[in-house]
Design goal:
The protein is an alpha/beta fold. It is built from 11 helices and 13 strands. A 6-stranded mixed beta sheet has the order 5-6-7-3-8-9, sandwiched between helices. Helix 2 crosses helix 3, helix 3 crosses helix 5 and helix 9 crosses helix 10. The longest helix has 16 residues. About 45% of the residues are buried. The C terminus is likely disordered.
């Protein structure tokens, strides 16, 4: 079953195309990471999925229908697109209590969500305008989970969270998916996506540039090789006709096989320190390669 489907989704603002013929699906029981630089089209795509921005072309469905046609949608789909959009004059508790009333939920559900996201009684009584960004994110996640939905659509939910908060969120989303829930999660925090995601969709300049399982995409990042003398290794690889890219912390990534790399190094008398499948930096390298002409800000790893 395809829980979220985007089919040819396109958004133009005059001559500018923010999202260009985007198509992908999100399956149940999975965390799908939606990756791309700022301005690549992630947020616009998500706004179109939940009906906040009308598409120029194409369509999106959630649970088999357009989001706006889902009755009492908060009971089925939890959404967090902008934690700063909450009403500054209300307390955190009031924000959740009002939504609970509109969804027909009991007050005890509000208490349960506040406890789940770690907002204590004193914090829940403070006005949202006095919240830190991390507290707003926790409140936004509580709001998304309030109706006990089966789908979560979250845009950069880790922004403003400290390392402990990011670890907490990772566990919460992983548990949600393990219980059969569906998560579409956008982020530029590549390490967090690499840890938690099952599937990856990479967007650059409004177009999908890669998608698939995390394992298959990271396998395509090839081999990592590092030598006692990297310059000598670079010469050996070049002489063997092997293409490679430098890694900032030393060594090279290449799509050549391990045997070819090893023979090139041995033939030149190069002492290798590492020769392995590119893994830890694989997602970052893939991301930077696929979106290189679209990167507008530094990537966080």
């Amino acid at each position: 079953m395809r829980v979220i489907t985007l089919d040819g989704l396109t958004k133009r603002y005059g001559a500018y195309t923010a999202v260009d013929d985007v198509s992908f699906t999100v399956e149940p029981g999975n965390v799908t990471g939606y990756l791309g630089p700022n301005g690549a089209g992630k947020s616009t795509s998500m706004r179109m999925i939940v009906g906040l921005t009308p598409p120029t072309a194409g369509h999106a469905t959630v649970l088999g229908r357009p989001y706006k046609e889902i009755p009492n949608p908060g009971l089925h789909v939890g959404v967090l697109l902008d934690a700063s959009a909450q009403h500054n004059g209300r307390t955190g508790r009031e924000v959740l209590a009002l939504s609970a009333m509109l969804m027909g939920l009991p007050t005890k559900r509000v208490d349960a969500m506040l406890e789940m996201v770690g907002l204590n009684a004193a914090e829940s009584k403070r006005r949202v305008g006095n919240y830190s960004l991390g507290m707003r994110q926790r409140l936004g996640i509580a709001h998304a989970l309030l109706g006990d939905p089966e789908v979560l659509i979250l845009d950069e939910p880790a922004n403003g969270l400290d390392p402990a908060g990011i670890h907490w969120m990772r566990g919460l989303l992983r548990d949600f998916a393990n219980r059969g829930g569906t998560v579409l999660l956008s982020s530029h925090l590549l390490h967090e996506i690499e840890v938690i995601a099952d599937e990856l969709v990479v967007i650059g300049r409004g177009k999908i540039v890669a998608q698939g399982s995390k394992e298959s995409l990271l396998e395509s990042s090839g081999m990592f090789v590092r030598a006692l003398d990297d310059e000598q290794l670079a010469g050996a690889l070049s002489n063997a006709g092997i293409e490679f890219t430098r890694v900032a912390k030393g060594g090279f990534n290449t799509h050549a096989g391990a045997e070819d790399v090893g023979r090139a190094a041995a033939g030149a008398g190069v002492v290798l320190l590492e020769l392995r499948t590119a893994d830890g930096a694989g997602l970052e390298d893939m991301f930077l390669t696929l979106t290189a002409d679209d990167a507008r800000e530094a990537v966080t790893t």
